Give the backbone structure.
Amino acid sequence: MTNSAAPKPAVPTACVIGWPVKHSRSPIIHRYWLAELGLAGDYVRHPVEPEQASAFFAGFASGPFIGCNVTVPHKEVAFGSVDHADAVATALGAVNTIWLEDGKLFGSNTDAEGFVANLDQRAPGFDANPGPAIVLGAGGAARAVIWALKARGFAPIHVVNRTRDRAEAMADRFGSVVRPAGWEDLPRLLPEATLLVNTTSLGMEGQPPLVIDLGAAKDTLLVTDIVYVPLETPLLRVARDRGLRTVDGLGMLLHQAVPGFERWFGKRPAVTSELRRLILADMGVVEEGNAA
Ligand code: ATR
């Protein structure tokens, strides 16, 4: 469906587009905030096939939505379709949040902000003494993580990837702070690292687990995963058993949603423990004694 083909909704409505998009939990997040803040509005899932993505954006300004989130596989097409992309979207070559100004499409990418906001909330001071970081993976998610870590002063950023070319592409994009590496380099890199991030799909439900020997890591290593299903991935479990600080990936999903909501509905929402519990309940997870 293109945007302009849909009827106008009764209240200001934003959406998430993707293919597939039926598993997106974004409507739960935005509807929670709308209700909490007492705002008239709605947020829906809007499936858009890859062949339809360009037409969707071309018809956006005359369509029913006030804005949208963009998820896989449309973030690059979205970047190429907006009239104005902000600095972070331009650096990443991908847009995940779109809004309208004077009939023009504006795009940002809030994944990087969501990633660090999650760490700021759940591991405050994580960047007080930034040192070498290790990023596992070199896909779209890694791009946002690398941008964010560079902005917070982590250096060097070792990008460990199965396909070497993709790790090298990260160095081309972000400069010499990025050091491309292979999985075989991990034992050498781990003892110096202050932060380890998994951005690969390994450890995700239905995917092979990611199991790394963290025995040689510093006791102060912070380990985080952008995978949040399961909430505690095999990597985080190994890290916790080793006594390391860990941060799960759910908060990134929650925090990346904040800037879009504020643009569309005019109020900045908060990522609370209640919202976290709501999403966990949808995942069938009951968490004990956790703060947001
Ligand atoms: P996203 O946009 O979500 O980051 P992606 O672009 O498909 O997704 O990237 C997935 C990442 O997981 C890549 O770094 C990929 O490694 P390759 O670039 O070598 O494909 C990594 N990945 C996926 N499955 C993997 C596996 N079985 N072993 C090692 N790395 C894997």
